[in-house]
């Protein structure tokens, strides 16, 4: 499944405009599984959002799509952009977050505002990379993402008028993805259709950057021992923080934070 990505073109686009469009990243079979699993996982998470009093601002958002051992994990186990992300960071990287946004007609979620996905602006030093996988066709009518090319070079938020006058709409087909520097200013578009428009939102970081949820702890030690080295790396098992003196003092192969993690 590894994509044949032209390294020069990828590097050039991510450096200059800050984003690129990957066509047909996910095949129809996997796509169908992702859509079904997302519906179940959203229902579980939505109940917690509402219980905890944050239902309105979180509407349509769904975080941390791991732990159910379903198609979400199948996709990561065969992660098609491994080469691209590694090249972007110049070495090993880990999953920082794995969520979804279900853009509903008349939505109120925070992702519809102009934002970027990393709080610390580190300029040219690459901390975080986004991959947004389209589970439905993204159209102008159903709220294709607005993305302001080149804005990853600017720390401050653009004024609304400038943003909406100059942003590109990420129109594409279900199974496509857009990859972008997390410094870039973007916003989900308003969904003026009558159907939902779903996207998976993943971020990747250098291994020393704290994950949004501790995935190795969520999934457990035993799980980490039965997966492939590639998935182990991706989920952050090679970049854990020990929490006891015994965990800290280990021979190199068993160390929580491995030497090749930067
Ligand atoms: O779904 C979209 O159009 C945008 C999602 C987004 O802005 C985000 O995940 O940060």
Question: How is this fold's topology laid out?
Answer:
Elements: H1 7-16, E1 19-22, H2 28-51, H3 55-58, E2 61-62, H4 71-77, H5 82-89, E3 94-103, E4 128-134, E5 146-147, H6 160-166, E6 168-169, E7 177-181, E8 186-187, E9 197-205, H7 215-219, H8 221-226, H9 229-235, H10 245-248
Antiparallel strand pairs: 1-7, 2-3, 3-9, 4-7, 4-9, 5-6, 5-8
Helix pairs in contact: 2-4
The chain binds 2-oxoglutaric acid.
Report what the structure shows:
This protein is of the alpha+beta class. It has a single domain (7-261), classed as Jelly Rolls. It is 31% helix and 16% strand. The protein has helices spanning 7-16, 28-51, 55-58, 71-77, 82-89, 160-166, 215-219, 221-226, 229-235, 245-248; strands spanning 19-22, 61-62, 94-103, 128-134, 146-147, 168-169, 177-181, 186-187, 197-205. The strands form two sheets. A six-stranded antiparallel beta sheet has the order 1-7-4-9-3-2. It starts with 6 loop residues before the first helix and ends in a 14-residue tail after the last helix. The mean pLDDT is 95. 2-oxoglutaric acid is lined by residues 101, 103, 111, 117, 132, 145, 186, 188, 199, 201.
Keywords:
Jelly Rolls, 6-stranded antiparallel β-sheet, 3-stranded antiparallel β-sheet, 10 helices, 31% helix, binds 2-oxoglutaric acid
Q: In a few lines, what is going on in this structure?
A:
This protein has 10 helices and 9 strands. It has helices spanning 7-16, 28-51, 55-58, 71-77, 82-89, 160-166, 215-219, 221-226, 229-235, 245-248, and strands spanning 19-22, 61-62, 94-103, 128-134, 146-147, 168-169, 177-181, 186-187, 197-205. It starts with 6 loop residues before the first helix and ends in a 14-residue tail after the last helix.
């Amino acid at each position: 499944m590894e994509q044949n990505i032209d390294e020069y073109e990828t590097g050039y686009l991510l450096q200059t405009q800050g984003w690129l469009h990957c066509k047909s990243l996910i095949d129809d079979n996997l796509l169908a599984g992702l859509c079904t699993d997302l519906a179940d996982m959203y229902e579980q998470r939505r109940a917690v959002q509402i219980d905890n009093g944050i239902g309105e601002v979180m509407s349509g958002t769904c975080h941390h799509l791991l732990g159910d051992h379903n198609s979400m994990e199948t996709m990561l186990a065969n992660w098609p952009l491994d080469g691209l992300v590694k090249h972007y960071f110049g070495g090993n990287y880990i999953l920082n977050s794995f969520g979804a946004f279900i853009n509903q007609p008349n939505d109120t979620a925070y992702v519809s505002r102009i934002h970027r996905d990393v709080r610390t602006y580190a300029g040219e030093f690459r901390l975080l990379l986004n991959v947004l996988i389209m589970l439905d066709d993204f159209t102008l009518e159903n709220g294709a993402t607005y993305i302001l090319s080149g804005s990853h070079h600017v720390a401050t938020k653009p004024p609304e008028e400038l943003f909406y006058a100059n942003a590109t709409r990420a129109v594409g087909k279900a199974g496509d993805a857009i990859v972008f520097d997390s410094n870039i200013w973007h916003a989900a578009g308003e969904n003026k259709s009558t159907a939902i428009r779903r996207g998976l939102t993943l971020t990747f970081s250098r291994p020393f950057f704290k994950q949004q949820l501790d995935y190795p702890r969520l999934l457990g030690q035993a799980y980490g021992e039965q997966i492939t080295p590639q998935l182990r790396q991706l989920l952050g098992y090679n970049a854990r923080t020990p929490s006891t003196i015994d965990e800290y003092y280990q021979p190199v192969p068993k160390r929580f934070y491995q030497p090749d993690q930067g």
